[in-house]
Amino acid sequence: MLRQGNHPERAGRSMSISYILQSIISGVLLGGIYALLSVGFGLTWGTMKVLNISHAVFAVLGAFVAYWLFVKVGVDPILSLPLLVALLFLVGAVVYKLVIRPVTRAKDVIMASMVATFGVAIVVENVMSYVWRPDPRILKPSYTGTSFFVGEMAISKGPLIGFSMAILAIALLYWFLHHTYTGKAVQATWQNPVGAALVGINPGHVSLVTFGLSIGSAGAAGVAMALIYAFYPSVQSVWTMFVFLVTIVGGVGSVVGTALAGLLIGFIIGVCAAFLPFVWVNVLLFTLLLVILLFKPEGLFGS
């Protein structure tokens, strides 16, 4: 005879709740990484009016560099992160000087930047395909293959570590923007470029720092994504779609808004994945995007 506590209907209900909660947690962890992937994109769009279509390709580049350092040199991805961010910042500065700065003199900066950075994305993607081949890779340090249990829920350490990296990076970026002179100059240029120039802020320097930070944060997000999913050069097109989604939902240029939007989208992914085939998850997400564009084009958390 079954005891009351072991009733099969109750056990099934408990398993269902655990499955839903586990799916939601996994979605939120992924959403935090999407937030980091998007925050730099929103900064360049808001501050410089540059729509950087190549943003996600530098995230993939960061993932490949971290993978190469891990496989060839044995440097843990987390330990290589400061070096990687600095390297991608320098790459961003070079791209700014060679491509972005001339584009900002165009009559229609947004359109010109889209075309120019689309070309950058194609070039970088093909260079990565030549150097590393287009085969899928995944970062697999020993700690990413384990999980810990909360009741009946198994939480994988890979997404949790990636999420922690993302939240820390977003917090550091927020601190930089609000508690340093250069960060405040970035905000001033975004809010009132003419006024910022009148008080002596160099817009060229601010734009270079902004674009470098954007590419550096993309590289960090690429490493976090590589701890969870396989990556390959052309995956940048998939990541780009989510960058647009998170940025528009959160509000262009808002670090806090982007972080909240990433978590919200991750929550939606988790809930939908628990009840629907995964193919419908993207349908619902981009339907949400269309609704937001129609009724609140500045984003849910934008001003």
Spell out the key features of this protein.
single chain, 303 residues, mainly alpha, two-stranded antiparallel ribbon, globular, disordered N terminus
Concise overview:
By secondary structure, the chain is mostly helical. It has eleven helices and two strands. The protein has a domain at 26-234.
Compute the gyration radius: what is it? 21 Å
Number of helices: 11
**Average pLDDT, to the nearest integer?**
87
Summarize the amount of helix as a percent range.
over 70%
Q: What structural class results from the helix and strand content?
A: mainly alpha
Find the count of extended strands (DSSP E, 2+ residues).
2
| Element order: H for helix, E for strand | HHHHEEHHHHHHH
The portion of residues forming beta strands comes to under 5%
State the end-to-end distance: 62 Å
Which sequence of strands runs across the widest sheet? 1-2
Q: Pick out the low-confidence regions.
A: 1-15
Shape: globular
Q: Biggest sheet, open or closed, and with what strands and sense?
A: 2 strands, antiparallel
